[in-house]
Design goal:
heterodimer, A: mainly alpha, ABC transporter involved in vitamin B12 uptake, BtuC, two-stranded antiparallel ribbon, 2 strands, B: alpha/beta, Rossmann fold, 3 domains, 6-stranded mixed sheet, 18 helices, about 30% helix, about 25% strand
Chain lengths: ~325, ~525
């Protein structure tokens, strides 16, 4: 992601107010400080191998965090992505066990389940006007149930060895999930910045009434973001189950919360209309760096949770403080 | 005698831009001082400093001779400052009594509410101001004017002796303004010092004792109201002679652009028939709640209708109209509530400009940024927008400039019909004149304009023809000749209040009959 940054950033910064500069930099500074700390504490941290490890671990989270960014920008929230991961992983595993020679069915099943769940979310939110929190809470429970139904309550094992190819094939040292993560960020950045759909996403989140009176078809926009969120969760589910070459109904548990945390750390407003995928990328890197660094330092898992929770809140508090200062 | 409020040498800048430059003036107890000035002149900043929400860079504020030390709302309140903001934020589901006592509830045993006592205290406070309302009425059932009055009572009942009123009449119906004046005058009689902002000249003459004008952060006028003329005040605000506020608009053509046949917003209403010609400004008058906004929204497909047909340039619009279909047919709509329905305030100017017609600056859904920026800049020039750069958020502009975006964004592609709902509400007099000229030139370029307004001079000054609504029906129509007659305002009021029965009640919708072509 450092390749073409200098030119785009310089052009962007010239139009950005000092306030935005401060806000953007606070989270970068936090991330740099965290990286410095781990580098200082462990020689194993700042190695190319370890950076790759962080990216591989980050990829499945990244895909759902990207979808979550879109949903949160419209002022909604998608609590169902964790369960959708499980349901799509199980369905991909299910079709692969039965058709070991036709592995192309796996991504079709995984993404298909994701799209169906997303479509239902979008319709319930836009047509029935059910608040997104409730609509996706219902989907979270239902999709989790679906995952158990598919596997009859048990994990699906005995998958063909080719099933692992989705997550483990590498090009130029980067595995498919990492490549998808990078593509996902670039594509969604482009969509948000440069397409009519992206403008509508911000407009619906910024002021749904005004958007609708300006002719924006708000219902379609909402269905669009939930579809994308669902599809990305489906891809994520396939990646996770492919990595371990099995499907388990408990996969993806809690992913929705990490995804929401990444988006919020990235400076997005839960009320919609404000945020960016770059912010989400920063938030994601912060969380994943913490996971990885604390593992390297052999911090016990339960303590890791406490430290992570505290740091997430501290980072957002700092962001709020910085943006207040920026406004004065 | 000590002044109730004394402001000395106040300076404040934001990010290096001075907003207040050495402002000093005094307000005496039992007097009303109108703080005049265009949007962005520094009035809000001054209010925020006096009420302790901001600290000045230099200078100080004294209340009854005591300096306001800490810039904290509580410190200001302790010294007797009360503020009634322009955007009221009542707890709309709670009762009047609960609203009045929030934060200083009457309690027993430290935590149990004395509801009965609060209700009876509220009743007596309301009675003092001659208002007959049940204290347990939920706030949401009150009109804007009454909500405003409750806020004023709340501020003064907690001991405010210096009251800051930020455009209290900007969203009140004309008929209710007198009620507010009565309250304000009775507070003056009790010795409350009031600092009051308004954009209405008539209001300054009706209630003010003094006028203080800010322009670009400078204090440019501080006079007793009897010593200055309205044009002195306007000149002090805008720094030049205003000239004619309402431009002359050429006579409309005979070509019908918008035709409304038998439109019913509610089944109980009479069907509405209207015709608007190219180049014509059709004014729609009436009281708040007369159904004017619903009618405009119905024309734009943003409000369900039960019957009726719309025809634009001879083409019938679909019966189930949506805003996007209305836009495709060449309609443009400027809603009444700028912040709630007009703009996405967090989006940039450029994004707001491109919102109704993103297709003009994109191909295959992909935005062509250079083209989008060029279009937005062209529109900004067209409406004389004052801005720094296209990527600043819309919320950083003043109200008048925001309104220019809401109008200007429709001009990217030539619209055919422009629907305006209170286009100059909360807009200062300088920007108002610019908006009028923009509307006039749009009409002259051949648009059909429908203008809903509660501002009588605006309605009479801008319209070729005025229809008056009451209770969801059109109750009367005034031609240009009738509008020029001295009794025009009285006639409009009579139609609006439904008093005008003899000649008009026979025909339910006596509209556009004179110009049927």
């Amino acid at each position: 992601m450092t390749v073409d940054q200098p030119t785009t950033l310089r052009r962007r910064f010239s139009e950005i107010s000092p306030k935005d500069l401060i806000i953007r930099n606070v989270m970068v500074i936090v991330l740099v400080l965290v990286i410095c700390y781990f580098t200082y504490r462990s020689a194993r941290f700042a190695t190319a191998d370890n950076v790759l490890t962080i990216l591989v671990a980050a990829a499945p989270f990244a895909l759902v965090a990207i979808g979550q960014t879109l949903v949160i920008l419209t002022g909604g929230i998608d609590l169902s992505v964790g369960s959708v991961i499980a349901a799509s992983a199980m369905s991909a595993a299910y079709v692969s066990v039965r058709n070991p020679d036709q592995l192309w069915l796996a991504p079709v099943a995984a993404i298909g389940i994701g799209l169906v769940c997303g479509l239902i979310n979008g319709l319930v939110v836009s047509a029935l006007k059910v608040p997104p929190f409730v609509a996706t809470l219902g989907m979270m429970t239902a999709a989790s149930g679906l995952a158990y139904v598919i596997g009859n309550g048990a994990p699906i094992n005995g998958l063909p060895s080719g099933y692992g190819a989705f997550a483990n094939t590498a090009f130029m040292g980067l595995t498919i999930p990492v490549i998808l993560m990078i593509l996902g960020f670039v594509i969604i950045w482009f969509v948000l910045k440069r397409t009519t759909f992206g403008l509508h996403v911000y407009a619906v989140g910024g002021n749904a009434n005004a958007a609708s009176l300006a002719g924006v078809r708000t219902g379609r926009t909402l269905i669009g973001v939930y579809l994308l969120s669902g599809a990305l969760a489906g891809v994520s589910g396939l990646m996770i189950s492919s990595r371990v070459i099995s499907g388990a109904p408990s996969l993806g548990q809690g992913y929705e919360l990490d995804a929401i945390a990444a988006v919020v750390i990235g400076g997005a407003s839960l009320f919609g209309g404000r945020g960016s995928v770059w912010g989400t990328l920063l938030g994601l890197l912060l969380i994943q760096t913490l996971n990885n660094g604390l593992d390297i330092l052999v911090v016990p898992a339960y303590w890791q949770s406490i430290i992570k929770g505290a740091l997430i809140v501290a980072a957002v508090a700092l962001d709020v403080w910085a943006s207040r200062r920026g406004r004065r | 005698m000590t002044h109730a409020l004394s402001v000395q040498g106040l300076k404040k800048s934001f990010g290096g831009v001075p907003v207040l430059r050495d402002v000093s003036f005094d307000v005496d107890p039992g007097s009303i001082t109108v703080l005049a000035g265009e949007n962005g002149a520094g009035k809000s900043t001054l209010f925020k400093i006096i009420s302790g929400q901001l600290s000045p860079d230099a200078g100080h504020v004294q209340l009854h001779g005591t300096a306001l030390e800490a810039a904290h709302p509580r410190a200001a309140r302790a010294l007797g400052v009360g503020i009634v903001p322009q955007e009221l934020a009542p707890y709309s589901d709670l009762s009047i009594a609960e609203n009045l006592f929030v934060g200083r509830e009457l309690r027993t045993a430290g935590f149990l509410l004395k509801r009965g006592a609060m209700r009876s205290r509220t009743a007596s406070m309301l009675a003092e101001f001659g208002i007959d309302l049940d204290p347990s009425t939920p706030m949401k059932n009150l009109s804007v004017a009454l909500t405003q009055i409750v806020e004023i009572i709340k501020a003064t009942s907690s001991g405010a002796s210096v009251l800051l009123l930020d455009e209290p009449t900007s969203s009140i119906a004309e008929t209710e303004v007198e009620r507010l004046y009565d309250i304000v005058r009775s507070l003056r009689a009790r010795g409350v010092a009031m600092l009051y902002t308004t954009h209405r000249m008539a209001e300054i003459q009706a209630i003010a004792d003094r006028v203080v004008t800010l322009r670009d952060g400078h204090l440019v006028l501080d006079e007793a109201v009897d010593d200055v003329t309205p044009s002195d005040i306007v000149t002090s605000m805008i720094g030049r002679e205003l000239g004619q506020l309402f431009p002359d608009i050429a006579a409309p053509s005979q070509v019908t652009r918008l035709k409304v046949n038998g439109l019913r917003v509610r089944p109980s209403n009479n069907p509405i028939d209207l015709q608007v010609h190219a180049g014509e400004v059709l004014g729609i008058g009436g009281l708040v709640g007369a159904g004017r906004s619903s009618l405009l929204k119905a024309l734009f497909g943003a409000q369900k209708t039960t019957a009726g047909q719309l025809v634009v340039d001879g083409q019938a619009l679909p019966a189930k109209l949506t805003p996007s279909a209305a836009i495709a047919a060449g309609m443009a709509f400027v809603p009444e509530d700028r912040k709630g329905e007009g703009l996405a305030l967090g989006l940039t100017l450029e994004e707001n400009f491109s919102l109704p017609r993103p297709d003009l600056s994109s191909s295959g859904g992909v935005t062509r940024t250079r083209k989008r920026r060029a279009i937005a800049r062209g529109l900004a020039d067209k409406v004389q927008l004052r801005y720094r750069h296209m990527s600043q958020p819309a919320e950083t502009l003043s109200g008048g400039n925001q309104q220019k975006i809401v109008i200007g964004r429709w001009l990217a592609d030539e619209p055919k019909v422009l629907l305006l709902d209170e286009p100059t509400r909360g807009v200062d007099v300088g920007a108002r004149g610019e908006l009028y000229r923009i509307i006039a030139s749009l009409a002259e370029s051949g648009l059909a304009v429908v203008l809903v307004s509660s501002d009588m001079p605006e309605l009479i000054g801008m319209s070729h023809r005025v229809c008056v609504m009451s209770g969801g029906n059109i109750t009367g129509e005034l031609s240009r000749a009738e509008l020029d007659a001295p009794d025009a305002q009285a006639k409009i009021f009579a139609f609006a209040s439904g008093d005008h029965t003899e000649e008009q009640a026979t025909s339910p919708a006596p509209t556009a009959k004179d110009s049927s072509s």
